[in-house]
Amino acid sequence: MSNHDHLPTSQAYDLWSTVYDTDGNVLQKLDDIYISTALPPLITPNTTVVELGCGTGRNTLKLVELGAGKVFAVDNSKGMLEKLCEKVKTGGEEVVEVFEVDLSTFASEGTAVENGGGEFKKALEGREVNGVLSTLVLEHLALPAFFAAAASILPVGGWLLLTNMHWDMGSISSAGFLDTTTGKKVKPVSMNHTKEQILEEAQRWGFVVEGVEEAGIRDEEHARAFGRRAEKWVGVLMHVGILFRRV
Ligand SMILES: C[S@@+](CC[C@H](N)C(=O)[O-])C[C@H]1O[C@@H](n2cnc3c(N)ncnc32)[C@H](O)[C@@H]1O
């Protein structure tokens, strides 16, 4: 019997949502470090941001704390969005609007009509979006769907801050969590995208690169700062952050 359950992405994240914020995920910790320096310079009180694949709001709440004027948070896992809504209730309800949208329906520019996509698009009508944030989501989407979504939302001049599992880590692993109720590892749909593939698809949709940062666990001592789960990743690049501008 397999010790892995491969589930549709939204179902896997519905299950993962119960422990997502607390299971000591090393990639989230690397993401926090990158976001702590990459995000603040992009946010002012007038900034409107769309967050694609916001999950439990790990970074949505940072946007609120940094003083963004408006945040449209999008995901297709009800479980993850419930966690976000609980957090937003105690700070941010007037800033954050939440939408259940399946980003894979953005197959070509502006065609998301299913699963709340229409409602989301209506909310954006007449709004100038300044930036799109998407952290640790890209591995679950085909590249054309992701960049079609970002391009349909972001006008020329806007920024896209994207993070993802690094392609080196993605060549030997993928997102997943241990469901302690079944003892099985739950795996959503996942695909590894190389640097060349990401940058080529981004360019097709009018995104130019302003910076790329790659990070991982350097050595045993570095691993200690990230907890027990970091030990097996020593020497592997795990995280990439890319800042794009739409031209
Ligand atoms: C690893 S989590 C990242 C959550 C959050 N951005 C963070 O950094 O903590 C990936 C998120 O992408 C969402 N996601 C995956 N595929 C999606 C799709 N097709 N449409 C919308 N959201 C999707 C999942 O539901 C999940 O919340």
Automatic annotation (TrEMBL):
Coiled coil: none annotated. Pfam families: Methyltransf_25. GO terms for molecular function: transferase activity. Keywords: Membrane, Transferase, Transmembrane, Transmembrane helix. The chain crosses the membrane at residues 141-162. Residues 49-107 form the Methyltransferase domain. SUPFAM superfamilies: S-adenosyl-L-methionine-dependent methyltransferases (SSF53335). Gene3D superfamilies: Vaccinia Virus protein VP39 (3.40.50.150). It comes from the Eukaryota. PANTHER family: TRANS-ACONITATE 2-METHYLTRANSFERASE-RELATED. This is Methyltransferase domain-containing protein.
